[in-house]
Each structure stands twice: as C-alpha cells, then as structure tokens.
Amino acid sequence: MSSWDFWVEEALSKLESLKLLRSLRPIITNQNHELQSNEESLQTFHNLNSWDRSSVEIQISEPTFQNWIQILPSSGDEIISIRDNGDSIIGGGGAQPQRLRKLVLFSGNDYLGLSSHPTVRKAAAEAVLKYGMGPRGSALICVYTSHHRLLESCLADLKKKEDCLLCPTGFAANMALMVALGSVGSLLPDGKKPLKNEKVVIFSDALNHASIIDGIRLADRQQVQIYVYKHCDMVHLNTLLSSCTLQKKVVVSDGLFSMDGDFAPIKELAELRKKHGFLLVIDDAHGTLVCGKNGGGVAEEFNCESDVDICVGTLSKAAGCQGGFIACSKKWKQLLQSRGRSFIFSTALPVPIAAAAHAAIVVGKKEKWRRKAIWRRVQDFQALTKIPITSPIISLVVGSEENALIASKHILESGFHVTAIRPPTVPANSCRLRVTLSAAHTIDDLLKLTTALSLCIKFKDIGVVTNFYKADGYYAKL
C-alpha cells in the first residue's frame, strides 16, 4: 500500500466516524443488460460523411459580422429567425431579410467532430423521448442513474482506472478534486488541526488551467501549501520537491496545454513520481480521445497510464457533449463524492447528455480513423506553414492587441472563425490567434486557411510557444 492509499483510507475512516461518508445509489432508468448490450449495437463509420461538416461550419448574422469586423461590442440579443427559403430575419416581425455569413470554424474544441455524429445524436434523442431530461437534482440525492453509472464505467475503462466520478463540467471536476485533496490534510483521526508536516502540498505547473488554479485557491483554506513550478520545467520541479520536507505531495499538470498546445513532459513526471512518491494528477481535457491508439489520452500516448494516479477530463471537447469526470481508484471516488463540493452541490448531468456522452466515447474509441485524420491535419498544417507544431492546438503569437485584432479581422473576412486571444487570458504583448484543428476539416480547408493567414502573419517568425511564462508571472500567482 502506498502512502497516499493509507492517507486516503485514514480520511475515509474519519468521515465514516463522523457519519459524513456519502454513497451513490443508481436509479434504474433501463435494464442494465440492455444498456450494456447497447454498446455493441452502436453504429460506427469508416470515413468522413456530410454530417461531420456541421461540427466545423457555422453561420452568423450580418449585424454580428459587422460588429466583429469593426471591433464593436455586441449585446448578443439579436433575435434571428429563418424563413423557409433560407433568409434570416433579424428582430422578427416585419423586419427585412438579412444575409447570413457562413464561416469555417477553426476555434472550437470538437476535435473529432463527434457532436454531429448520427449515433451520438440518436442516443440523445432516444433518451430524451423516453425519459425527458430525467430526474433533476444532485447526484447524491436522486440523479445518479444507470446511464450515469454506465458512462462512468466506460470512462474508467478508457483511462485504465478502477473507477470514475462524473461531474457537471470539467471545471467542476478540477474544483472538486482540489478541494478533496485539501481535506486529506485536515481529516485527521484525532480531530486536531494539521501540524505543518501533516499538510498537503500541491505543486502546480505555471500554465495549468484556470479550474485547477481556482480549485487550489479553495483548497488553500483547508491548510494546503502551494508551489508553482516553471512551465514544464522538470529541473525546477525536482528542486522544489527535493527541498520540501512535507510528506503529502501532489503534482498536478495539464496533459495538453489549452492555450499553447504543448504537451506536459509526462515521462519525466513519471520518473520524478518514482523518486519523490508524490500523487500525480493529470488534467487530460484536450488529450482524451485525441491521443493514444484507443483514445486513452496523453498518458496512453506516452505509455504512462500506470504512473498517473488521477486523471481529470471533460466530455465537452473531443467527446462533443458536456460534463466532466475524474478517473481514479474506488477509494478516491468515495472521498471525492463525500468532500468534492462542486460535485456534491451541483445538479447532475441530464440523462440524455449522459447517454449521448457514452455513445460518443464508444464511437470515439472504435472510429480510430478520426484520430488518424486529426493528426494528419496537424502534419498538413506543419507542411503548409513550416511551423513546428506538435498538437491540434496551434498558438500563433502576434504580439500586441492591435496586431491580433487586425489579423483576426482579416481571417474573419476570409471566411474563417478564428478569434484573437488577448489579456487577461494571456499576458500583454503575447496576444495570439488560437487555431484548433478537427478531424472534420479537409485539406482544402487548411489550404484556404493557411493562404489567408499568410497574408497577415509571417510564418517564419512564428515558433513553438513553450516556457513563455515564468513561475512568478501572470498566471503563477495563486
């Protein structure tokens, strides 16, 4: 038994003695054998089809387009209705038809195009017709159904973990985990406040997602010590770990960083874990279903699944649905469902969303060609621009806000939805265009996009964006 297993058991024992241990009791919305056999009957396909385009093609109204071009604020309250002939009416009533602008989306997170997959749509439709939205309430009260349990089992299998806990969003999943981690230090058998050497200490990458940062801020109130290490800098992390005398160490990192598109050095993290015995937490929001032969994520891609203790993810990106999850051991799940406040006090996912997400995970695992397609698009973009990108998230840093807005305007006029990322999302003078690729994009899409980009960006001046921030920088301040 590892030290962390012992500490979690100790915390669970304390919760049980206080009668604070909470259980999940699934409500049966269907016969279990029917749900389980459903996985084999889910329809899959072997290449792109017409419906996949709806995941990367959007329309905006002409007034919205003009506001965007002129960098004017918009309340977003235009009422748009569509006539049978395809004309759009802005404002309703006797308003005159307005033109709709068609754009190819290069800024979304639907990496595999599963949001429009017929099997995913059918699963949601059948569930909503049969159950409506399902019972409403928190999972611990009345909204943990057999559909939710089936999705958890499917995700646990995908991540090669013993169990899994569903959360309403990926943000809520990280918040629940960080708060639960903090409780390990405060749930002592004797009921006393933790001594300094009994505190939990969290080491966080400087570029971790906001949900991790906010979760750590809440956990800090529960006697947690915090260190921020320079982005992907294993020498710095090793120095911090070596100088820390506390035992309950946790290292948390994004697997694939959402803004810069670079990977965590997960093999090096695994080696440091063996050396220092810390709990390794990976937020694999952008790697799940995208990386690895079976879509298991960044850990599967780098053959480090057994080295990751807890994996956080989301169903709103490559799965094309909604919700978050924490793949972990059964003991950790017990602690999370008893101490993770953003899980405990939130309404659970509606049954149709759980059904759709389960279908998306199954389809995403089986249709391996989608992963091959998105990585082929990564190679195509690199070949066309000579920019040494490493993932479907491409960060084109252009410097000032003015440069970013001018470039974004040009790309919009060229028919592509690519937004300028500006402060406070990124620090001053590191404004960028953030391009994301999808399996639903075609080579023709990329040819047209890169042609448009070449007219406002000098590709030779764009390099791989890594280690941009320092540990005492904008995002490091927890």
Automatic annotation (TrEMBL):
SUPFAM superfamilies membership: PLP-dependent transferases
Pfam families per record: Aminotran_1_2
Domain Aminotransferase class I/classII large residue range list: 102-452
MF term (GO), any: transferase activity
Record keyword Transport present: no
Coiled coil: none
UniProt entry keywords in alphabetical sequence: Membrane, Pyridoxal phosphate, Transferase, Transmembrane, Transmembrane helix
The organism's place on the tree of life at top rank: Eukaryota
Transmembrane regions: 343-363
GO annotation terms (biological process): biotin biosynthetic process
Cofactor(s) this protein cannot do without: pyridoxal 5'-phosphate
Family of this protein: Belongs to the class-II pyridoxal-phosphate-dependent aminotransferase family. BioF subfamily.
Entry-linked PANTHER family: 8-AMINO-7-OXONONANOATE SYNTHASE, CLASS II AMINOTRANSFERASE/8-AMINO-7-OXONONANOATE SYNTHASE
Name the UniProt record assigns to this protein: Aminotransferase class I/classII large domain-containing protein
